[in-house]
Amino acid sequence: MDTQIVIGHGANGAPVSFDIEELLATRLLVQGNSGSGKSHLLRRLLEESAGMVQQVVIDPEGDFPSLAEEFGHVVIDGSAYAPAEIEALARRIREHRASVVLDLDGLEVEQQIRCAAQFLTALFDAPREHWYPVLVVVDEAQMFAPAVAGEIAEDTRRMTLSAMTNLMCRGRKRGLAGIVATQRLAKLAKNVAAEASNFLMGRTFLDIDMVRAADLLGMERRQAERIRELERGHFLALGPAITRVPLSVKIGPVKTGNKARAEGLMALPDTAPADMEALLTSNLAAEAAKSAPPPPPPPAPRVEDVERTIASAEERQVPQPAEPADTSAVATRIEEIIFELAGEEGIAFQSASAQYQTFLTRCRRERLIGPMPDMQSFRRRFAIAGAGLGDLDEAVQSRILQLAGRVEEDLLAPFLVIAKAAHAGETQVDENELAQAYGTSSPGRIRRLLDHLERQGLIVVREDFGGDRTLMVPGLENVNAG
């Protein structure tokens, strides 16, 4: 089987070949500033080798799903799966030798990094009988192997560095051949970059990146200026899979890609300023309030079965009535206990099972005999009490609870706080009150909560350039849009 592919042509017009079998043993590093042609190069490499070897692409920008139509790659939407499902997918990919694109475009940056890290780790940890050869392409690798700690959490940084280091340092024996592409060599962890033996260096302007690229190519530092002068789509190549001496390569054409994206300049629309203003501003509030189609419901939390087991055990411990009791008085007292519990400081930061256990303990202490709410009913009534919906009239309560029908149990309390504020005409919800209802002190979790509720079509978030957020609840009357 011929393992050579042509990736482009040299300065003299001669074709430049790439030995895929050699690449599997020696790995590849691609560098180039934005617009230098990195994605085009990776696409050319993937297209030409698609029939030779299994391919896995980590795609944070949504650039490579078009490979599916022409070459049969399976596109995996990272935002549609839970962490355990992503790991299971990775194991099946290695078992069945499927070529896939892991599309992370629908996730925020830290979620992209965690998803990719768990996916790569599962590829690395596959059983020995599934160690088939596979090219693993990681675009924007500086995100997944940062040279220094950035804004992501420390545990996330350690997780992703470990996954990328395993791919580049220890992946060869497991059949994993890493291909990493980065905009900045200075931002890429050195222990990841150092494991590559093949290099394709595109245009870059910063001195520190030019010097590192020249060092990797074995060029004298005074020759580093050559890298700054490269045209788009031109790369300097070196490595056992390509050439033994630095060689300039113009990357060849590709079959797939984003054909809808316009390159170069285009004539502007011939529209009068007043008409353009009307196009931009008419019915803006109505469009912002449109509800997006709800995505499929997320998988149930893994702790749910444990919580239900605890709840069932607690229910069995409640004494059964020996004689008829005043059920209305018992029901009223149960509601009072839930209301008192919801008002206690710090209770929202406890787990649902701990809250329910505290509730049942107080009922036993007062010797309340009668039907007790189960875990699901308690969580709902606890959320209603904590949000203060009891202060509203029955019709408003009914409307809010109807809108909350699609909200997950663990997000019900903060949604009710938002809905109550919206009914009162308040578009800026007190974040301390929202954090208390959600049981968190992390601003990041609050942002992710609001993003999730907005994706579900339950709320509309508007944030101005000053950083102020206003919230609206589609379908709720008497909302002041601010």
Question: How are the SSEs placed, and which strands pair?
Answer:
Elements lengths: L3 E7 L4 E5 H7 L1 E4 L6 H12 L4 E6 L7 H5 L2 E4 L5 H14 L3 E4 L5 H16 L9 E5 L2 H4 L9 H17 L5 E7 L7 H4 L4 E4 L5 H11 L7 H4 L5 E6 L3 E9 L21 H9 L2 H5 L15 H14 L9 H16 L9 H14 L9 H13 L6 H10 L8 H12 L7 H8 L4 H13 L4 E4 L5 E4 L10
Parallel strand pairs: 3-8, 3-9, 4-6, 4-7, 5-6, 7-8
Antiparallel strand pairs: 1-2, 1-11, 9-10, 10-11, 12-13
Organism: Altererythrobacter epoxidivorans
Protein name: AAA+ ATPase domain-containing protein
Pfam family, one: DUF87
Shape estimate = elongated
Instruction: Assign the structural class, choosing from mainly alpha, mainly beta, alpha/beta, alpha+beta, or little secondary structure.
Output: alpha/beta
Number of helical regions? 20
Percent of residues in helices: 40-55%
Total tally of structural domains: 3
Mean pLDDT: 80
Main sheet summary: 11 strands, mixed
Quote the beta fraction: 5-15%
Low-confidence blocks of residues: 317-324, 478-482
- Based on the structure given, which CATH architecture of the largest domain is correct? 3-Layer(aba) Sandwich
| DSSP, total strands | 13
Organism: Altererythrobacter epoxidivorans
Protein name: AAA+ ATPase domain-containing protein
